[in-house]
Amino acid sequence: MLSSNDDRIVMTLDAGGTNFVFSAMQANRPLVESFALPSHAANLERSLAMVVEGFRRVQSQLPASAAAISFAFPAPADYFNGIIVRPCNLPAYRDVALGPMLEDQFGLPTFINNDGDLFAYGEAAAGFLPYVNGLLEKAGSPKRYRNLFGVTLGTGFGGGVVRDGALFIGDNSVAGEIWLARHKLERDANAEEGASIRAVRRVYAAQAGLRLEDAPEPKVIYEIAEGRAEGNRAAAHEAFRRLGEVAGDAIAQAITLLDGLVVIGGGIAGAHRQFLPAIVDEMNGTYCAPDGERFPRLGIRAFNLEDPAQLETFLQGETKELRVPGSARRVRFDALQRTGVGITRLGTSEATAIGAYAFALRRLDERA
What's the CA angle centered on 262, arms 258 and 263, to 5 degrees? Predict the structure, then answer.
């Protein structure tokens, strides 16, 4: 995915329930200054008019013709066919053929994806995945990674899967929907209720003896946990620890099937000092066999790559040199099977924009 060296232009949109933010990308960088238009979430005719107006305005500022349109739009959707089904924060959109409409209006290939998917793809193209592989190369390790699971912690608990350079969308456009994993601590709830902004506020309120409406936002709770703001520090620690436990359980279930690196973004990512150790501890937890013996829940070992000591061990690995039977040839391999968990290297918004850009270029190349 060498999108940083590509001079093709792609028009982009970040669609939210309040505003639509428009821009364009070239060589992994914004080409025009982004601007916002109201989404008119409950009025389909006005909302579609804003989409067209926004892209027309972007188009008028470009130094050359765009090659495609590519953007994030809330689920549920049939992303492959560009059909928006029923997003909660955009109630006017019910079975709307948005992708085909834009192709008709602009005569350009149009690609729509989930923001969690595009975040993961951006981190795979230009963020966490090449960052970790670069560190391994510098350390002289033969180990390299090709697969990435991206997680966003914020208003919701999103996910995206990149396998060997390709975004895995699934047959129903619902691959990577980790928010629907089971909540470890509340078995009748989904994981998002334990791994999101509202989850941090809810636990802090309960631990501190406050009404939920009186609980501060996670940024303030983080400052309390770090000892930089007044409040119940023990409650703040527990709020983030519990988020880490629930998120870590869900991530462990996912990574058992996916086997790759894990990158975390979203509005809560900046508080990773308070929750990332709990995520990794949960991933390195154990199961109990019928005879009482405990064994690791993962077939690999998880490392917190934001911890310098764990990062050093991760990079060192267990490299061995073996003689090939019946030959004088020798081969090197790394015997430590492992995954690394870390924080976005691009920032969530930039990663999502780069993901939209890289996805469009890949699809254009496949069509060619």
Answer: 140
